[in-house]
Design goal:
binds FE2/S2 (inorganic) cluster, 2 domains, 3-stranded antiparallel sheet
Length: 266
Amino acid sequence: MDLNSIDFYMEIEAPHVARKWKPGNFVILMLHEKGERIPESVYSVRDGRIGMFIRRHGKTTLELYHRFKVGDYIYAISGPHGREFPIKHYGTVIYASDAVCGHAENASFTQELKKYDNYVISIQTFETGKEVYPEEFLAEKHADEHYVTTLDGSAGVKGHYTDLISKIISERRVDLVLTGGSLAGMFKASELTKRHGIPNYALVRTIMVDGTGMCGSCRVFYGGAVRFACVDGPVMNAHLIDWEDVMRRDKRFIEEQEKAKNLFLS
Ligand code: FES
């Protein structure tokens, strides 16, 4: 099902993954035996099915959207990958997201954090009002407070989630900030929370290949050491991440990605 002009919702029946999934874990999809491996964040786990928000921005996600129908099989779903994030009582927690993987985890984390009596403020940023997800897919139903912000101000609060975080933390105590989505947004939030001395964990979705710590693709400089987002994250302490290096590495296959996408579309 379409969530907006570029993101869609999909469920895959995978009881072996669903049984073991914990917040912070992600899955890897392969459409074909020799196909690309695509990491995806998890929005929901129920009745043995993994629900995901997926952005059709590359060859494989376009193929998944256009060529696979309800009831089809994909070659593999592997997981859960990554380190579980400790869900416990923190107090007042903000989860803020501005892109597809972050929005998926915004909903799942908000739901889990509520089970431990946290006061959860969820913020979801979209470019325009037209891009806001249908209500049933927003984190709204699980949060104590929920805000939609849009960059052009056509729905909700005008601005990016970092503007709203800045306002909230100037007015009241916040014990933990979680962020997911664009690297630039998480970087900005990290600078902001660091200045205010608020713990901040971010969903670091670098380019991943094997998802098991073997290939080195997702390498992150973390507090002066080398870490791998797929096994040491993907949810990591935002204040320890070398964000400029992460953003630089994230651009390294743009040309190849565009070529593969255009070939698929031609
Ligand atoms: Fe290969 Fe993390 S994806 S080391």
